[in-house]
Design a protein that fits this description.
With 86 residues, the protein is mostly helical. 50% of the residues lie in helices and 9% in strands. It has 5 helices and 2 strands; from the N terminus they run ββααααα. It has a two-stranded antiparallel ribbon with strand order 1-2. A hairpin with a 2-residue loop joins β1 (2-5) and β2. The longest helix is centred in the N-terminal third of the chain and has 13 residues, at 18-30. The chain is flat and about 45 Å long.
């Protein structure tokens, strides 16, 4: 997302779309192609099993999840349909 405010440009990319959006956005913003490289990923580390177990087994309180999904940030970046999918 690009926005102009007081002659400044702002780039906001949702992390789940960064691999699809980054290169195009950087060319638009700076006029140069910059490749995004993947680094520091849990899948390539010995901690991967702990990370996967955590993701698969974490149980957050419904009140907490509801508060997150009803925040101004989530409502700005995600439609109601997107929020209901998760």
């Amino acid at each position: 997302m690009f926005d102009k405010f007081m002659n400044q440009r702002l780039l906001v990319i949702k992390m789940e779309r960064i691999s699809k959006s980054f290169s195009v956005a950087i060319v638009y913003l700076f006029g140069q192609k910059i490749e995004l490289s993947r680094a520091n990923e849990a899948s390539s580390k010995t901690i991967n099993k702990v990370y996967v177990d955590f993701k698969n087994n974490i149980k957050l309180p419904k009140e907490y999840v509801s508060k997150l999904y009803n925040s101004d940030y989530i409502n700005h970046f995600y439609t109601e349909i997107n929020r209901l999918k998760n």
